[in-house]
Amino acid sequence: MSVADKSEKKSGGLGETVSVIVQALLLALVIRTLLFQPFSIPSGSMRPTLLEGDYLFVTKWAYGYSRHSLPFSPNIFSGRIWGSEPERGDVVVFKFPPNPSLDYIKRVVGLPGDRIQMRDGELVVNGEAVKREKIGQIDNPDITEVSRPVDVYRETLPNGVSYDTLDITPNSIGDNTREFVVPDGHYFMMGDNRDNSSDSRFSVGYVPAENLVGRANIIFFSIADGASPLEIWKWPGSLRGSRLLDFVR
């Protein structure tokens, strides 16, 4: 083999490597933009459903696509394309309306036109209190963030979707609210940790359909104690094995 042949072979090998890397990056971008996007849970507002240290996949196609479906939310079009409406009870990642650079995750409890209110800790939808029953207590700080037993209530929305909520502080400021009327093209979001959630009752307000990023689908990893997934040596004591590959409900 001549020197020229060897040079061409090396050049071709490098070119093929670069091509493979570029194709892989483009494929990852397409998957992240159109199909699935990973998110980590940074706060306790969705306890006991989601815990800090949970890592989950969000389905991007669930509600169609908006500019917020793209990295950095470029202002290239408005509204949604191929859009579909969330259902009551969906756990949704969305852009915080006052500051769209921030991602929030809450549960949809109000659809456009709904009247939403909290009365003595009960969620009221269109004048009817949703079914709410105490199912017990949780005495596990990893789930509740407090070192005492916490009451757990099972709520069932009008469409039959059920989920658990925490009642850490009875008669808290969010337990009694005015009646909210959800505008067209907007949604009312609440956290399952009712006494520790900044949601549509407070600073979040009504969430425009354009701000929806996707529906939380499955927890693929979970680690406690503020540990990083890369700190493998901490897995034996911090990995929440029972939450791995658990569907978000």
UniProtKB/TrEMBL annotation:
> Which residue ranges run through the membrane?
20-39
Q: Which domain of life is it from?
A: Bacteria
Q: Which GO terms describe its molecular function?
A: serine-type endopeptidase activity; signal peptidase activity
Q: Where is the active site?
A: S45, K106
Instruction: Give the Enzyme Commission number.
Output: 3.4.21.89
Which reactions is this enzyme annotated as catalysing? Cleavage of hydrophobic, N-terminal signal or leader sequences from secreted and periplasmic proteins
State the UniProt keywords alphabetically.
Answer: Hydrolase, Membrane, Protease, Transmembrane, Transmembrane helix
* Stretches assigned to the Peptidase S26 domain: 16-221
GO cellular component entries: membrane
A Gene Ontology BP annotation from the UniProt entry:
signal peptide processing
Chief place where the protein resides: membrane
Tell me which Gene3D superfamilies the record gives.
Umud Fragment, subunit A
| UniProt family annotation | Belongs to the peptidase S26 family.
Q: Which NCBIfam families does the record match to this protein?
A: sigpep_I_bact
This chain's protein is named Signal peptidase I
Task: Tell me what organism the protein belongs to.
Answer: Borborobacter arsenicus
Gene from which this protein is expressed = lepB
